[in-house]
Amino acid sequence: MVFADLDDFGRLNKRLGHTFGDRVLKAVAERLLGFARHHRGEAYRYGGDEFALLFPRLRQGLLPHLPSLLEPPLVVEGVAVSFSLGVSGGRRRRRRPGNPRATADDLIRLASLASTLAKGRPEKIALGEEVSLASGRAPEATPSPDPGC
Fold first, then answer.
1. DSSP bridge pairs for 75
2. Distance (Å, rounded) from C-alpha 146 to C-alpha 149?
3. Which helix (H) or strand (E) holds 26?
4. Confidence band, pLDDT 50/70/90 cuts, at residue 100
5. Which of 18, 57, 62, 106 has the greatest CB tally within 10 Å of its CB?
6. For 126-133, which contacts have Cβ atoms below 8 Å and span 24 or more sequence positions?
7. Mean of the per-residue pLDDT values for the chain?
8. What pLDDT shows up at residue 147?
9. 3-state class (DSSP) for residue 18
């Protein structure tokens, strides 16, 4: 699973208006869906400015392609828009007992926390194993500088 979270969307939405924000969401959705389908996956709007991408292939085969999702930078009506990616999931090495829904919730939560961590990185990508699910927190991400919004 890849979780995409727009960077500074709230500030952009307030400064340039909700109608412009809607156009940004549509542009991001088009890019994510195109990438997902190219790699035999699907993209879904999870909520607000967050998207979930699901893929049937092994994570190791997908990871090298993720930087191409972020390049070239997305520009909507002259405004640069960026997003951060969190990655969770992969092949299980052992069977886990319990509720399968809890596992899906864990994957979403890990990917979401990883996307928060990615916001503080130049490459804008982080892996779920870099966060602690038990604490429910990602290490602090440093805020990005104001990109002109």
1. 80
2. 6
3. helix 18-38
4. low
5. 62
6. 126/84, 126/85, 126/86, 126/87, 127/86, 127/87, 127/88, 128/86, 128/87, 128/88, 128/89, 133/106, 133/109
7. 85
8. 42
9. helix
**CA-based nearest residue to 129, from 84, 94, 66, 87:** 87
Angstrom distance (rounded) from CA 30 to CA 32: 6
pLDDT at 97: 58
Give the separation between CA 10 and CA 41, rounded to whole angstroms: 28
Q: Which two tokens stand for residue 97?
A: 């007992």
Give the distance from CA 96 to its chain's centroid.
26
Q: Distances from the Cα of 69 to the Cαs of 61, 79, 89, in angstroms?
A: 14, 18, 19
Cα–Cα distance between 73 and 100 in angstroms, integer?
37
- The radius of gyration of the chain's CA atoms, rounded to the nearest angstrom, is 15
Is the Cβ–Cβ distance between 71 and 22 less than 8 Å?
Answer: no
Over residues 39-89, the pLDDT tens digits come to 999 999 999 999 999 998 778 889 999 999 999 999 999 999 999 999 998
Token readout for 145 is: 């500088």
